[in-house]
Write a structure and sequence with these properties.
Elements lengths: L1 H11 L1 H16 L1
């Protein structure tokens, strides 16, 4: 169920996932 929920989240909100990834990269970059 968790895998399906994660997949649905990625498909429905790709921009949010990309934004989180970019924020993480910037946070760890500094």
């Amino acid at each position: 169920m968790f895998a399906r929920l994660y997949q649905n989240t990625v498909i429905e909100k790709p921009r949010t996932i990309l934004a989180l990834l970019i924020l993480c990269l910037l946070f760890f970059g500094y």
